[in-house]
Every structure is written in structure tokens, then in C-alpha cells.
Amino acid sequence: MNTEDVRNIVVLTGAGVSAESGLATFRGPDGLWEGHRVEDVCTPHAFRRDPALVHSFYDARRAKLGTVAPNTAHEALARLDAEWPGGLLLVTQNVDDLHERAGSRRLLHMHGELTRGWCLGCGQRFGWAGPMGEDASCPSCGKAGRVRPDIVWFGEMPYGMEKIDEALQRCDLFVSIGTSGAVYPAAGFVQTARYCGASTLEINLEPSLGSTMFNETRIGRAGELVPEWVDEVLQSAHSSPISR
Ligand code: OAD
């Protein structure tokens, strides 16, 4: 892939980018996500039906964040953020905080964040550490029992769609890393980017569901292939620095 004419880049990441840090991906071979069916824990309906189950599921995932660290793929993407002179937007579907802990700044969490809460009483969103549980009090209005994880569940609108769409329309290169391509709208970003004239690259352990839509697919571990790709793209920026 010729990266010499690239100015604006959009990178999309999924669970595969955090797999080598020790966080489980969603679609394991048994179709379960850490022992749960997705619809039992990842929908507003599930939260209304059994808030204790949903809270304990996300509390466990939040606690797990303290036991893991960014891997070489997160670190390489943070280096890209620091050194890429053109436009860049890193869109992650992940609710972990490994991209920001690695140092990424031009970052958008389209499916929300484990480290944030949302009060259904007053509508405020805020940072959250530790367990949340059913009786959590809102730091803004003080009411207990109305706080939920600030995670986008199935049937809810992902965050930042306007900004993402704008970046996709402007980008010259779209790169998808560690995502199965099973969940829309993220699975459709490659089509928007291509339609608007961008080159497209997939980096994944196996071909994703949308693999044929990419100009190029690199199969392997993100921890190995992402640093290689970042080196490549930064090299091209350093060798032809004008006009970015
Ligand atoms: P998935 O679990 O569906 O897919 C993870 C992908 O990463 C798979 O294609 C794996 O082959 C690949 N993979 C695993 N290890 C890898 C590695 N070391 N290097 C590179 N690739 C690797 O996860 P997502 O596509 O992120 O949404 O799932 C999308 C959304 O579905 C999630 O954000 C979540 C879920 O339901 C919400 O919670 C709203």
C-alpha cells in the first residue's frame, strides 16, 4: 500500500487489539462472552430485568482493568498519535482504557467507557472507579439507584457518530484492527471510507466478516503487525514531510 499521499487517517479498533493484554474478546468459539449471552448483559432490557447481574458483570470488567496493561499495539498507535503530522482519529469500540493509558489523545470511545457512569436521574455522565453496583449514588445529583455504566448497549446510539462520519469522509486511509466486523455501524465504516476514496487496510488474526471490502488484509497478531504498520506509515511521513 502506498502511504506517501496519505494525510488523514482513521483507525478503528476492536477487542482484538486488547486480547494480548489479557482482555477477552467478545465472540469466542462458544458464542458466549465471559460465560454470558450478550443479550443477558448488554441491552437496556437486560439492565431493567436484572440490574444486579449487569452491574456485577461490568464491575468485574472494571476491576480487571487494574490487572492489565497496554500492549505493543496500543503503544504503537499512541506513537502514531504523537508523531503523525496529518489528521488522525482513533475510534475504538473497546470500553477498556488501554488506548489512553498508552498515550493516545485523538481518541473516541464509540461504545462508551467502563471508567464512566451515567445517572438516569439527572442525565449527567462522570468518571467512575471501583464497583458501581445497584445502590451507587450520583456524584452530581446525589440520588442513589439511578447510576448505570456509561456503555452503549445493543439498541442504543453509539457516541460521536457525526465526528466519525466527518473523519471517514475526509480520510485517505482507513485501518481496521482486531474487530470481527459483526457489529454495525462500525462494521460499515470501511464502506463509507472506500466510497469517499480512501485506501483501506485490515489487520486481524483472521479475515473479518467484511474482509473482502478492504484493499489489503494483513493476518496476524496486532501486537506484532500494528507496530510494523505504524513504522511504515511514519517512515513515509518523514520521507515526504511537505503538505501534511
Ligand atoms: P469480537 O470479539 O467480535 O472480534 C474480535 C476480533 O479480534 C476477532 O476477529 C479476532 O479474530 C480478532 N483478534 C483476536 N485476537 C487478536 C490479536 N491478538 N490480534 C489481532 N486480532 C485479534 O470483538 P469486536 O469486533 O470488538 O459492543 O466486537 C464489536 C462489539 O461487539 C463490541 O464493541 C461490543 C460487542 O458486542 C458493545 O458492547 C456495544
The unique ligands bound to this protein are: 2'-O-acetyl adenosine-5-diphosphoribose
Low-confidence runs: none
Percent of residues in helices: 25-40%
The number of E-state strands comes to 9
Helix count from the secondary structure assignment:
9
Rg, rounded, reads: 18 Å
What class, by secondary structure content?
alpha/beta
Amount of beta strand: 15-25%
Average pLDDT score: 94
Global morphology: elongated
Fold topology:
Blueprint: E1 8-13, H1 16-19, H2 38-41, H3 44-49, H4 51-65, H5 72-83, E2 87-92, H6 98-102, E3 107-109, E4 112-119, E5 125-127, E6 147-151, H7 161-170, E7 173-177, H8 189-195, E8 199-204, E9 216-219, H9 222-239
Parallel strand pairs: 1-2, 1-7, 2-3, 7-8, 8-9
Antiparallel strand pairs: 4-5, 4-6
Helix pairs in contact: 5-9, 7-8
The structure holds 2'-O-acetyl adenosine-5-diphosphoribose.
Describe the structure in your own words:
The protein has helices at residues 16-19, 38-41, 44-49, 51-65, 72-83, 98-102, 161-170, 189-195, 222-239; strands at residues 8-13, 87-92, 107-109, 112-119, 125-127, 147-151, 173-177, 199-204, 216-219. By secondary structure, the chain is an alpha/beta fold. It has a six-stranded parallel sheet with strand order 3-2-1-7-8-9, with helices on both faces. Strands 5-4-6 form a three-stranded antiparallel sheet. α5 (72-83) runs parallel beside α9 and α7 (161-170) packs parallel to α8. The longest helix is centred in the C-terminal third of the chain and has 18 residues, at 222-239. The model has no long low-confidence stretch (mean pLDDT 94). Bound molecules: 2'-O-acetyl adenosine-5-diphosphoribose. 2'-O-acetyl adenosine-5-diphosphoribose is lined by residues 14-16, 19-20, 25-27, 38, 42, 93, 111, 152, 178-180, 182-183, 204-206, 208, 221-222.
